[in-house]
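Entry:
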Amino acid sequence: MTDTRFADLLERVMGLSAATIGPGAIERAVETRRRETASRDTEAYWALLQASSAEVQQLVEAVVVPETWFFRNPQAFRAMEGDVLGPRLRADPLASARLLSLPCSTGEEAYTMAMALMESGIAPHRFSIEAVDISQPAIDMARAGVYGRNSFRGHELGFRDRYFDPVPHGWALREEVRAPVRFSQGNIFAPGFMAQAGSFDVIFCRNMLIYFDIPRQKQAIAVLRRLLAPDGTLFVGHSEAGLMREEGFVSAGMAMSFAFRRAPEAAIAAPIIAVPARAAIRPVAPKRAAPARMMERDRPVRQAIAYPAAAKVPDLATLRRMADDGRVEEAERGAQAHIRDNGASPDALLLLGLISDAGGQGKAAAHYYRKVLYLDPGNVEALGHLALLLRREGDHAGARLLDERMRRRDERSS
């Protein structure tokens, strides 16, 4: 019988869902720490964990594998500077900004936030960056500010000459970049986490939520909502975009940045799911009964009522606005007619997938998302929504494969 005690412990301590990384990763971390603590067997190591909070932290360190580098997913940093903070700070010489990097890992993300603003002419004294991570060794490395070759990827490395000095075994970050960044160790699930921190104009929280189960995701998002200023911007990972829409955030409309803002309070009870071209679909509440029409919707591909052949079919942008306005069935019929008249396209199929997903028809949604990926293998919206759908249905292995595809795509684009 599989020993789930260690996975349960990690879930309690750090919210980690074992299914997202696989039990093998936890078993390897446990075995590594067992050997390093000279525990004779797993029972002895389990007893040590019960007696030592410091060893629990060491196990967390063994499980958390940071994968980060400077200017990872550069579109987000360009959006942060060019669309969010830069215009406001340049328009008002007395304005300042507060930013948060969570989790900050070994500091590359937080320091990139600083460099991106400095590159645009914003002086370091006009912004401050809080950087928080559960791993104390990661925080120590970030504070040291010395980085090896793996932290510098891609072809645009001019920033390294401008902000780093070569040292043995790497490059040391200059003080002007380090000054506005403050690092601290913390756990987002700890009681009172950052209770006195105030609000932030920009939060980067990328590729953390995907490792939590649904209750922990909701708990973490509630913390992020509390920390985000009413007009602030939250940047997440590509595979987390669908989750943010489900939780009532709205897309900031910045291409490839995965930036979101808090929805108006009145809209939180009816979260939206965004679609391309900055449109959105409001989920349809299911009926209590299960009439024949609902049974029809359970088929892999739903057959919407045919759009009149003689009628002019609206363009896809109009159909998206229809869906956003709650005219979901009309938008669905129009998308089907658009495919009938013009052939299948990634945008039309994606719209049908999102409509099905919002209506709780997972099988139909997955069918459409896969059709999108057949036509456009790198479609970020389809990859992210299908990964989230698979994860909700318990197919964590399938979701991880899609996450990996998105990660490789990001590396190529950066």
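The first strand starts at residue 97 and ends at 101.
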